[in-house]
Design goal:
about 210 residues; alpha/beta; Aminopeptidase; two-stranded antiparallel ribbon; binds zinc ion
């Protein structure tokens, strides 16, 4: 089984410069700046470590290394996933969210439109995260209107173009202070990544 992990946007280079600036970042009145791509790498890198250490038999591939600050093109991210047999591959893109009012909070998981194999993967990861978020009093933003599953359906490029089951995770909202202080907490990052990992394993064990 090939597990393709995709860390959204760019990271911070050795000079402290954010690759995806001025997008996918938010400056708080305190002067503190949240960088989405940085969090995506921190959390995704943990999911990667858990998978590699507990399931060495799985082939874990990343579209960009967690230590690599470059914002690789979306078509490249898709190309990495599509090089593998779609029947033996899953794709997980890690992000955190932002809203127009900077007040929205919580977790979301997206798949492509319609009923696909991605729904099963989204349900496994979503249920696992929901259990943890319920304990934490954090919100899981659900979309029960479309098909009754936990996932929201939106045509993200990486979801539309990948041929294997694919999901896109929005951990929390990096532009909302209450979510941001949780998002940057290493204890949260570990626990969240662990629950994403558990969801992936649950899906793979049920294949
Ligand atoms: Zn993003």
């Amino acid at each position: 089984m090939n597990i393709v992990l995709d860390y959204g946007h760019g990271g911070i280079d050795s000079y402290g410069k954010y690759t995806t600036a001025p997008h996918k970042m938010f400056t708080y009145p305190t002067g503190e700046v949240a960088y989405e791509g940085f969090f995506n790498r921190q959390i995704g890198g943990l999911v990667e470590i858990y998978l590699r250490s507990h399931y060495p038999q799985y082939n874990v591939i990343t579209t960009v290394k967690a230590t690599d600050y470059r914002d690789v093109h979306l078509s490249y991210r898709v190309k990495v996933a599509n090089e593998f047999n779609p029947e033996e591959t899953i794709f997980i893109s890690l992000h955190s969210n932002a809203s127009f009012e900077h007040t929205a909070r919580g977790f979301e998981i997206y798949t492509t439109k319609g009923i696909t194999k991605s729904d099963g993967l989204a349900t496994c990861i979503g249920d696992s995260v929901k259990k943890y978020y319920d304990e934490m009093g954090l919100r899981v933003r659900q979309d029960y209107i479309s098909d009754g599953d936990i996932d929201k359906e939106l045509d993200f490029y990486v979801l539309r173009k990948t041929r294997c089951p694919a999901v896109l995770i929005e951990a929390l909202f990096f532009d909302c202070w209450d979510d941001y202080i949780i998002l940057k907490d290493p204890a949260y990052q570990k626990e969240f990544a662990w629950n994403v990992y558990l969801g992936i394993i649950k899906y793979l064990n049920n294949l």
